[in-house]
Amino acid sequence: MQSVLVTGGAGFIGSNLTLELQRRHPEAWIVVMDDFRSGDFRNLEGFRGDFIAGNIAEVDIDKRFQEGAFDAIFHLASITDTTEQDQYRQVHDNVEGFRKLLQWAKSDQTPLVYASSAAVYGKTETVMGERCTPSPQNAYAFSKIQLDHLSGYYRKQYPAWNLVGLRYFNVYGPKEAHKRHMASMVYQLYLQMKAGKKPRIFKDGEQKRDFVYVKDVVEATLAASVASVPGVYNVGSGSSSSFNDVISRLNKALGLALDPEYFENPYSFYQNVTQADISKSREKLCYEPRFDLQHGIDDYVKWLLKSGES
Predict the structure, then answer these.
(1) Into which CATH architecture does domain 3-171+213-238+276-290 fall?
(2) What is the CATH architecture assignment of 172-209+240-274+294-307?
(3) Residue 132 and residue 141: Cα distance in Å, rounded?
(4) Is 106 a catalytic residue?
(5) Catalytic residue among 100, 179, 194, 252
(6) pTM above the 0.90 mark?
């Protein structure tokens, strides 16, 4: 890769991806675009490329970039706060930014990987495969389904275009602190336990999530840029772990023995289980998670203690 565009490159996943691209392709010209609604400049410490402060839904791409300017595009820009109640703002910015990018990139069919979300699956007790019927429970999830619909339309028009959507599951890892209340439960529980407090979770702590380490997510995202088969793929660990299990593993990583403090779940809608079927990703993207939950938490805690991020 000689030139790469990363939208949302100051965000959690975006910054990890950007810095890994820079490490692997030190001579490449990497352009990051971010408006900092879901990002932080500190995530890009050591970045040597170009930075554009802007919202992809508002930037005039035709004036900003020449046709065929990039060898690959990673579109991670999004309003990531799932509690955002302004439906128009949530859907408009997420969908129209992507639509504009597709219109611009279609002429030379630049390989384009974009962030979808496991949120599209909604509330279900089954393992979540790409063929499952979407069931959005909020405007954020609805917007991500529209991205998948749009990409499907363009893939039909341009079947040779390497256009790939990734449905990220419960990602955790370095450079997520700026997300605050939207950061992963792994990070939220770490903060409580590091402060010596009992970790607070809903009764009875057996709700399960497919926790996937950000380093595995970056590998899947890079693999998608050279995918042999365009489409939409799940990116998870392929297994689910309970919040009780997360606390147990954090105790081990931190050398603690804190018991959880349970409280009533105030939400009428709550996903009890998320688990990705990653068989398609394994077959078509050659994606294989390297970090199980314990190894991911161990690696993350070492980074947190070294960096002092809190």
Answers:
(1) 3-Layer(aba) Sandwich (3.40)
(2) Alpha-Beta Complex (3.90)
(3) 14
(4) no
(5) 179
(6) yes
